[in-house]
Amino acid sequence: MSESEAPSRPVAPPKRRKFLVVVDGTPESEVALHFASLRASHTSGVVTLLAVIEPGEASQQWLGVQNIMKEEAREEAEELLHRLAAHVNEYAGIMPELIIREGRRAEQVMQLIAEDKDIAILVLAAGLGKEGPGPLVTMVASASEKAFPIPVTVVPGNLTEEAIRSLA
What we know:
Blueprint: E1 18-22, H1 27-42, E2 46-53, H2 63-92, E3 97-102, H3 105-115, E4 119-126, H4 135-141, E5 152-156, H5 161-167
Parallel strand pairs: 1-2, 1-4, 2-3, 4-5
Helix pairs in contact: 1-5
């Protein structure tokens, strides 16, 4: 059988590397979003936006109030993700994957990374306020046993648009 007669085999599409960005509406999360969007665009990757609804005072309230608060938090997260998805599409020409989780932020990030083997890089931006760089960045910097199992890119939260474009 010659090469031209060989039966063609279906070829699995190549996996696309996913850049995970945890979004919360802060200016520094937008910096991380811009950086990840351009990196994904330049490397034929995918941006995954994760919004985490953390348990708060709602768990202390009556069931009816708790349900209303959870629903409002979910609606806010959906609105944020859809607004950011449109922004990523306009900014980098790609449509991101959108995920909402409920629970503690670090735990949900770890769980998502464990579940989705295509997530290759977690992109975080360090906070600039008096509160410090942020809990996820602090967790990365502490190099504890709770470290993320994938590479983490931490960008300064005050990067200019010009700097983001030159680095990404």
